[in-house]
Structure formats: structure tokens, C-alpha cells
Amino acid sequence: MSDNGDDPIVGFESVDELQSHGINAQDITKLKAAGIVTVLGVAQTTRRHLMKIKGLSEAKVEKLKDVVAKLLPPPFQSGTEVAERRQSVVYITTGSKSVDAMLGGGIPTQSITEVFGEYRTGKTQLCHTLCVSTQLPEDQFGASGKVAYIDTEGTFRPDRVKSVADRFGVDATMALDNVLCARAWSSEQQCDLLVELAVRFVEDRTYKLIIVDSIMNLFRQDYSGRGELSERQQKLNQFLARLQKLAEEFNVAVVLTNQVQSDPGANAMFAGASSSKAVGGHILSHASAVRMQLRKGRGDERIAKLQDSPDMPEGEATYVLKSGGWEDPS
């Protein structure tokens, strides 16, 4: 495997490889249409879901599973082998050195990072900063890659990307060309966009970041009231599972911004506790490997609190919002 993780490894090849092992082209086309675009993707999909794909019979699904099982390495790996795989993880700078240090180097690939906080704490500003910093070379704490941006609130601003590009000394036109943006209008469309991204990622391995700004906005609009809560969480879980697969299959970072809601009980129980909590419930909190809460500080300062990370302890860092995105206080 290459140091930057760009070369496909066993399992990450396109499903087109299955044709040389006896799977016909029409069935491979059906897999792609369902967003299953790599050999590993077939292994990760249950037989039940594969049989829901029109034209795939039980016999065809069994043949698919048998072929994929022979192509993939054993499911259990030694700790050393896992460590080698983790060598391909890239950390992308947030624009603030203090926040990067708190995160252990920046936003990591191969996992989901959730950023939540009240308005004017810089969630969308971070997204615009990452649109450019992801394109920086690795020796400048970037990932030398393109960005896919799913905008659910209509807040993506090309002019903001240009301002961040000016700060980092990147050609603004080139920076915008390397950001693929889609405006989502419903939670169903939001989910469908991941199928399209999977197809694009197989064809273009240079993508290194997926941004969803924000994750819960459309789910909250489309599913209202307690009666629809169970269905909402089920659909959300499916969306997050597909995001996690994309993160690992293609070595990309995933950044989700999230809204907050009032939590009156927090103040009653603990003095000084935050009175807001992220929406989305336990399903979202468990899916996110890294969770960072943003809040306002003194003056123009903002505070990022690392709430959860598999690599780093809880901590806080201060940043400010400027025309060039997230920066350290002067």
C-alpha cells in the first residue's frame, strides 16, 4: 500500500473486477446502481439487501458472496496488520493549530467527525476552511485531495472558499474546481447523493473529504413528531452506515455539522453545564468517532471542546473566525 493510501488494496477494487470471476456485466451494473461499487462493498452488504436489488436472485447473491469471500483476505487481522492499515490515515488541518493539536493532528480520514454548536460558532466556516485545507499538500497539513460537499441548508458560499484560498496561497479558481457541491432538498435525496458519490469515488480516487452541512436538518423536516421518530432514526442509521463505509473504503474524512437543542435538565443537575445538546440522539453520537462541541468565548473568541475521540483525551482549544476561515487567536 502506498504511504498516502491512494492505491487500491485488496477489497477496494471496483466491482468490475468481479466480471473476471464469473459475475456477468448486467449484475455488476445493478450493484453500481445501488451504490455498491467495490468488492468490499459487496461483502459489507447483507444478503437480504442484495436480494432487494431488482434482478438479483437468491442464487446470484450466493454466487456473489462466494466469489467475494475468495477474493478478500481473512476477516481477522493481527494488530500489526491493522496498524499498517492505519498508516494511511491523513490528518487535515482545521486552520487553527491549537484545535489541530487537540484533535491529534487535525480531522482524520477513515472516520466520521461531528461538529455541533449553536449559531455563529463557526460550523459552516470550518467547512469552508476544510474545502481549501484538504487540497493542501500533506507537508502543509492537507490531504492533496478534492472535496465533496452536501449542502442541506443552502449555506455553501463560493466567495468564502475564495477568501480561504487567498489566505493559504491557493489559486481560488482551482480551489473551487476541486469542490463538488450538491444541494439536497430532502432526506431521501441526501441519502441518494451518497450512491452517486460512491460511483464517483471509484472513478476518481483523489477525493479526501465528504462534508454534510448539516446532517440533521432535512431529517428533522421530513420526520416530525414522536410517531415518526423511529423511522427517522432508522433512515439516519442507514445514512451514517453508508458514510462510514465510504470513509473506510476510500480513505476519506467525513465531517458532519449538527444543530443543537435546549437541554433544560443539564442546568438543573450540574452548575455550569451546557444547556444545549446535539440533535440526532444516540445513533448519531455512536456513529461519530470524533465529536467536537463549539461555543462562544470572550469577545470574538470561540471555544472547541473535544467530547469524544478514540485517540485523544477530552480537551478544549480556542480559535477565531476571520475572512480566511478558522485561525488561532492573535
TrEMBL record:
PANTHER family: MEIOTIC RECOMBINATION PROTEIN DMC1_LIM15 HOMOLOG, RECA/RAD51/RADA DNA STRAND-PAIRING FAMILY MEMBER. GO terms for molecular function: ATP binding; ATP-dependent DNA damage sensor activity; DNA strand exchange activity; double-stranded DNA binding; single-stranded DNA binding. Residues 306-330 are annotated as: Disordered. InterPro entries: AAA+_ATPase, Dmc1, DNA_recomb/repair_RecA-like, DNA_repair_Rad51/TF_NusA_a-hlx, P-loop_NTPase, Rad51_C, RecA_ATP-bd, RecA_monomer-monomer_interface. Belongs to the RecA family. DMC1 subfamily. It is found in: Nucleus. This is Meiotic recombinase Dmc1. GO terms for cellular component: condensed nuclear chromosome. It comes from Kwoniella pini CBS 10737. It comes from the Eukaryota. One of its GO terms (biological process) is chromosome organization involved in meiotic cell cycle.
